[in-house]
Amino acid sequence: MKVKDLMIPIHDFLRPDVTLKDAVNMLRIARRDAEKQGVKGLPVLDDHYKLIGILSMRDILKAVYPSYMSMMNLGNFTWDGMLESLAKRAGAEKVAAHMSRDLWTVQENNSLMECVDLMIKHDIKRVPVLDQAGKVVGMIYERDVFNTITNAMFDDRPGGKR
Question: Fewest beta carbons within 10 Å, which of 39, 52, 82, 157?
Answer without folding.
Answer: 157
